[in-house]
């Protein structure tokens, strides 16, 4: 399997990190495991873990409602930015939206409530020194397009919104993310393993898997798998970065796969997604005993 995956990424543009582990057997493949990659929206996974393991400085009820204000809106992925100001959403709904449609507004509201320092403290408590959250979505996106994040104004929001649509100078923009939210595929996969094996709180683990399994962006890890395959994943994208990290529940009691693929320097979004999909299919086929490059309908 390692040879097949090495061939897949060797034929692709850009740099890839891959971590695959079959949880029940302990077998794993790691490629570029110690390289630090920009997480993009995969950073919302450690934020979710911190939220559901009560890493916030004070107790938080998921039923608490937070009002959406004008200056909460963040451009990019998500739907809350399109809704009326004044809407009150539960923290549970914000957490769900930041994962299943990668809602940037929801993510920043949750992150501001918890605090970056508490997300990072939780990762260190879990032994994951190579997952570091330094920026909110707003800070990441404004930095990417070369705009100062503060002060927030509606005019600045609109400027960033428009600049994100401009597909020019991408390599220069990517340099602006070098000090962003960084992680290795090794530690990200280790976080997924802790979730799957209930090495964080059992209730939190179940909640995390439930939310991840409702992911709406399915063009990466799940893309080439049989439609009935249960998956739970979180994608991430900015510029030439195309990422996915998730759990594949194999059929017929074949076990559980955890897979993290981080990449940078992709020529197109579709190209990066295709590589991730091929890697997932290769691992799935290996552990389910499928040969011959079967196509799933």
Automatic annotation (TrEMBL):
GO biological process entries: beta-lactam antibiotic catabolic process; response to antibiotic
Annotated GO MF terms: beta-lactamase activity
InterPro entries per UniProt: Beta-lactam/transpept-like (IPR012338), Beta-lactam_cat (IPR045155), Beta-lactam_class-A (IPR000871)
Start and end residues of each Beta-lactamase class A catalytic domain: 17-262
Name assigned to this protein: Beta-lactamase class A
Domain of life: Bacteria
Pfam families: Beta-lactamase2
Provenance organism: Evansella caseinilytica
């Amino acid at each position: 399997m390692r040879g097949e995956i090495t061939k897949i990424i060797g034929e692709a543009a850009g740099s890839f990190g891959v971590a695959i582990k079959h949880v029940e057997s302990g077998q794993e493949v790691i490629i570029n495991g110690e390289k630090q990659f920009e997480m993009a929206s995969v950073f919302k996974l450690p934020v979710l873990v911190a939220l559901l393991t009560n890493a916030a400085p004070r107790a938080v009820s998921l039923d608490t409602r937070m009002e959406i204000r004008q200056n909460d809106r963040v451009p990019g992925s998500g739907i809350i930015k399109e809704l009326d100001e004044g809407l009150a959403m539960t923290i549970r709904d914000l957490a769900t939206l930041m994962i299943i449609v990668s809602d940037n507004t929801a993510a920043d509201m949750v992150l501001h409530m918890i605090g970056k320092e508490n997300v990072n403290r939780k990762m260190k408590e879990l032994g994951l020194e190579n997952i570091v959250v330094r920026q909110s979505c707003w800070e990441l996106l404004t930095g990417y397009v070369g705009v100062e994040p503060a002060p927030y104004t509606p005019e600045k929001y609109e400027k960033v919104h428009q600049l994100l649509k401009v597909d020019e100078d991408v390599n220069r923009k990517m340099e602006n993310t070098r000090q962003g939210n960084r992680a290795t595929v090794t530690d990200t996969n280790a976080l997924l393993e802790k979730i799957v094996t209930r090495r964080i709180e059992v209730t939190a683990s179940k909640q995390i898997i439930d939310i991840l399994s409702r992911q709406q962006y399915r063009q990466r890890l799940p893309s080439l798998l049989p439609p009935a395959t249960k998956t739970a994943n979180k994608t991430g994208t900015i510029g030439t970065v195309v990422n996915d990290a998730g759990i594949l529940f194999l059929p017929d009691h074949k076990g559980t796969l955890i897979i993290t693929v981080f990449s940078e320097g992709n020529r197109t979004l579709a190209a990066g997604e295709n590589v991730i999909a091929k890697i997932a299919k290769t691992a799935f086929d290996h552990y389910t005993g499928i040969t011959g490059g079967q196509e799933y309908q």
